[in-house]
Amino acid sequence: MSAQQTSLPDADAPMDTQRRTALIATCAVGGAGVIAAAAPFVMSFSPSERAKAAGAPVEFDVSTVPPGEMRKTEWRGKPIWILHRTPEMLQQLAAEVDRLADPESQRTAYPTPAYALKDPNLRSIKPEYLVVIGICTHLGCSPSGPFPAGSSPQLGADPGFVCPCHGSTFDLAGRVFKNKPAPDNLEVPPYKYVSDTVVVIGDDSKTG
Amino acid sequence: MALHETQYKGLLGWFDARMPSAMGAFRTHMSEYYAPKNFNFWYFFGSLALVVLVIQIVTGIFLVMHYKPDAAQAFASVEYIMREVPGGWFIRYMHSTGASFFFIVVYLHMFRGLLYGSYRAPRELVWIFGCVIFLCLMGEAFFGYLLPWGQMSYWGAQVIVNLFSAIPLIGPDLSLFIRGDYVVGDATLNRFFAFHACAIPLVLLGLVVAHVFALHDVGSNNPDGVEIKEQKGKDGRPLDGIPFHPYYSVHDVMGLGVFFILFFAVLFLAPEMGGYFLEWNNFIPADPLQTPLHIAPVWYFTPYYSILRAITSDFMIWLALGVVALAVLIYFSVSRRTIGAAVLALALVAAVLMKMPGIAFDPKLWGVILMGGSVLVFFALPWLDLAPNKSMRYRPGWHLGLLCAFAVVFLVMGYLGTLPPTPVRTGFAQIGTLLYFAFFLLMPWWSRMGSFKPVPSRVTFAAH
User: Fold this and answer.
1) Is A166 annotated in the active site?
2) Most buried by CB count within 10 Å: which residue of A77, B97, B141, B217?
3) Cβ contacts (< 8 Å) between B7 and chain A: which residues?
4) Does residue A185 belong to any structural domain of this protein?
5) ipTM above 0.85, yes or no
6) pLDDT tens, A111-126?
C-alpha cells in the first residue's frame, strides 16, 4: 500500500445511492432498537402492581349512614362521599336548576355514568344515597359540608357543599352552581350495588 | 449588535451567531479533530466506556424512582422493582449488567494503553485522569453494591470498611466515622446512596470531560506509536489523520452495535452470569448476625482481593527481601549516589516495618497497603516505562510476552480471588503478587532491554 493520503470526499457532491440506502436502513433498524430499549423506561412510569392493587374497588355499607348525614370512605386515595338524602333534600334538588351551571350533567370532562343519570336531578343509582368523589373540580381541594339550607352565606338559601380553597359551591347532588371557579359537577365514581345495602366503588361492571 | 459571523444557515446559523462556542466545540472535538486512521479493535473501548457511563446514569435515575434507601425497605424495594414495576426487571438488569460490562470495557481500554504506550509523553495527564477515573469507578461500584442490602452487600461493605481499621492509631475511629455507626447499618446505607447516586457520578462526569479534553489537546496515539502531528500536509492537517466525525463516529456506532449484541445477550439470557454478575448470596436479605460461608467481592475486584489475602505472616520475609533487592538494584542504577543511598535507607526501614518482631506492622496492614499499591502503581507507568518506542509493535517480541504474562497473572489472580483460600491457592496468589509488582517495578530495566525495531514516520495502514 503506497503512503499517499486518501482524499476525503467532496462535501457538496451528491451521496452515492447505495451508501444512502445503507445509511437509511441502518438508521431505521437503529431507531427500532432505540424505541425497543426505551419502552421499559417509559412503561416504568405506569402504576406498578402494588399501586394497582391499592387502587382496587372498595366496599361500603350504606345502611350505616343515618338520614341527612354523610360518611366518607377512600378509593384510590380520594375521599368518596356517601350522603343519605332525606325526602326534603330530594325535593330541593329540582328547584335549584336555574342556579346550576350544568343541571343535566352534560359536560364531558368528568362524564357522569348513564346509570346515575336516570334522574338528572339526583345523579345516583338509588335516590336516597348520593355517591360522589369529594374533590372539587376546580383545582382539587376537598369541599366542606354538607351545609343545611341557609346555614352558609356562600350557598345562600340552598343546602350544599362549599370548597374552602376558591369558594366553589355544589348542591346535594354534587352539581356545581353558576359563576363559580369550578366548571364541572362533582365526579360520580364507577359504582354498583352488590346487595340492597352494600355498594362497591371502583367497579361498575354488570357481571361479578 | 455584536453577532458573530457564521458559516451555518438557518436555525443553526442563528444559534451559532449567538453561541459560536457550541459549534466550535463540535469542530474541535469531532469534525475537525484529526485522529490517526489506523485505529484497530482496541480503540473501541473508550467510546464504549462513555456509552456505558450514560447507560448507568439513565438506568440509575429510573431505579431511584422506585428504590428505597432505608435498611428496612431496601431489599424489598429491589424485589418490587424486579416484580411489580412495569419494565422494572429490564431497567435493573441493564444497571447490573452495565456495572460488570463497565469494568470489562475499562480493563480492555487500559490494556490498549499498555499495548501501545498511550500513557507516554505527552499523554501522561490523560493517563492520570484515567487512573483517577478508575479509582472513582471502583468506589462507585463499591458504594452501589451495598444498596440492594443483600447478604453479600452487607458483609462486603463490612469487610471493606474494616480495611480502614487496619490503619495504625486512627483506624477504628476512621471506620466508625465512615460507617456512621458501630456496624454497617441504615446510616451507612443512606450515605453510600448519596455517594453512589449523586456525588461520584458528578465527579466521574467531570473527570471524563477532563480525560477527553486532555487527550484532544495533544491528539490520540495509535497502534504504531507514531505521532501523526509530525507529518502535516500543506493544509496543516496531519497526513495520517482523518476527522473523527464522520469516520470514527460512525465506526464507533458499529462497535456499539456489536457491544449491544453481547450486552443484551447477557441481559436477557444470563443476567446473573452464574453468580458472577449478581451473586447468589445477594438474593438473601442482609443478616448482621450471620456471615455467608463463602464471601467474595464482585468479580472485577477479585485480582486485588487476591493480593490482599496473599499477604500472610510467612510471606512477609519474601516481601522484605524483594524490597531490599529492588533498592539494591536502584542503588547500582542511579548516577547520583545520594539518591541511591536514600532509596536503600527507605527500603531498609520498610523491611524493618515488614519483618522485625515488635515493630513490624501486621500482615493485615501490609495487605491493605499492597492492595492499594497494586492500583496506585498504574499512576507511575509513564515514568516506569523507559523504552525508546511507545508501541509493542516495534519492541522486542518478549516485551509483548511479558505484557501478556502480566494479563494472565491478573486473570489468574482474579480467578483465585473468587475461591476460598487454601494453602496451595494462597501460594499461587503470593507468586502472582510478586510477579504483578515485578512487572511494574522492574519495568525501568526490562523496558530498555532487547533490540528495538525502527519506528516508521508514517502509520501502517491498509485500506479495507
Assistant:
1) yes
2) B97
3) none
4) yes
5) no
6) 999 999 999 999 999 9
